[in-house]
Amino acid sequence: MNSGGELLTIHPHELQFQFELNKQNSCTMQLSNNTDNHVAFKVKTTNPRKYSVRPNTGIVLPHSTYDLLVTMQAQQEGPSDMQCKDRFLLQSVITSPESTIKDITSDMFKKESGNIVDEYKLKVTYVLPPEPLPATFEELSDEGSPPKPSISDNGSLNDTVISKAPVDTQDDLTQAKVLILRLTEELNSTLQLNNKLHQEMDRLRLEISRGRSGIPFMYIIIVGFIGIFFGYVINRS
Predict the structure, then answer these.
(1) Three-class secondary structure of residue 10 per DSSP
(2) Which of 141, 159, 140 lies closest to 149 in space, CA to CA?
(3) Tens digit of pLDDT for each residue in 181-193?
(4) Staple 44 to which of 89, 116, 145, 147, CB 3.0 to 4.6 Å?
């Protein structure tokens, strides 16, 4: 149901809050401007410490809507009969198209100043929060009852099959990560050593090619053998 004055249509026509002790609650109010004019509004309440409206002033453009958020602060106690006497007042006036929110003043809504002010009063109602669904209890059938130990043909009692709990693999995963890291470091060290050996062999070949054969031939063989060995280890990795 939409209600309101001549300038603005208000929905809903009363503010409804779901009342719960020590809990803040909010509801929305929508203003509709079905005229060809720019309409400025201001919202007041009989209990400003209890409620807040955001925004409480504004301008609704022609043939448009404007949403407000009304918040009731958390209450320490509630009325015994759940009846609320609080009221809200919506005031609206026609303003110029050049007006902005900063141009809105309290004097614009004073009838004593000769302004044409449209007013609409809104009631406040409380509603109880929905009750939680009650727990339902059902009788267990034979299929739903726990499995019973069975007796084998030879009269011995068979143990009930119990599913095993999932094994915690966190420790195994950590150990695997440590092992992978250690193997990676060893592989990097081996690669570096192999590169150095290759460099040394290249240097020796260069020295031999230049006729500097003073280096013992056995040393060259040993170095070459070591390079071949590490190459084999790397290929196996």
Answers:
(1) strand
(2) 159
(3) 677 667 766 776 7
(4) 89
